[in-house]
Design brief:
By secondary structure, the protein is an alpha+beta fold. Among the domains are: about 55 residues; about 50 residues, no CATH class. Helix 2 packs parallel to helix 3.
Length: about 170
């Protein structure tokens, strides 16, 4: 339900929440969410949640893709899996990525045309990872931008590396 409200009126409605006592805040929650407010929520969180909902009613709330992503993160948290947020598709120029490989720290800077590492330009992170390691790597995985699998278990993160396993 998207409502029309002017900015001044919206700010006043949100500011008014601070003056309400707990029973009144719960009543406002009921009005905006259509459910009883959780008893465990503290007053400050109630105010913030109601304020967000009032703004969402005016502006339209979260995009469907954001809702899906939040549901996936919540499901992963319940099941004990690790989920990294999806990348925005492209690493923004100016972003610095660091990786320690064989006791040496490698810093890569994203630029408009690709990536810069050790005063040279590269088209992809994978090229840099290959140069550093001498083997083929997914550059996003090597620099920790994404995990090997989207739903890797927490236990998978503690598995020994091939070198550690060989030395055991």
């Amino acid at each position: 339900m998207i409502r029309r409200i002017n900015d001044r009126k919206l700010k006043a409605e949100i500011a008014r929440l601070r003056d309400l006592d707990l029973p009144d805040l719960r009543a406002v929650w009921q009005k905006h969410y259509g459910t009883t407010a959780p008893k465990t929520l503290r007053r400050k969180i109630l105010i913030l949640s109601i304020a967000w909902r009032i703004q969402a009613d005016v502006a339209g709330g979260l995009k469907p893709a954001t809702r899906r992503c939040l549901r996936q993160v919540a499901a992963a948290a319940r099941s004990g899996t690790v989920v990294r947020p999806p990348s925005a598709g492209r690493i923004k120029p100016g972003t610095k990525l660091m990786r320690v490989w064989q006791d040496k720290t490698h810093t890569v800077t994203a630029v408009a045309e690709g990536f810069e590492w050790q005063d040279s330009r590269y088209r992809s992170l994978s090229e840099i990872a290959r140069t550093i390691t001498g083997t083929r790597w997914n550059g996003l995985v090597f620099f920790g931008v994404k995990s090997r699998t989207a739903n890797s278990k927490v236990a998978d993160r503690t598995r020994p590396t091939r070198r550690e396993a060989d030395n055991a």
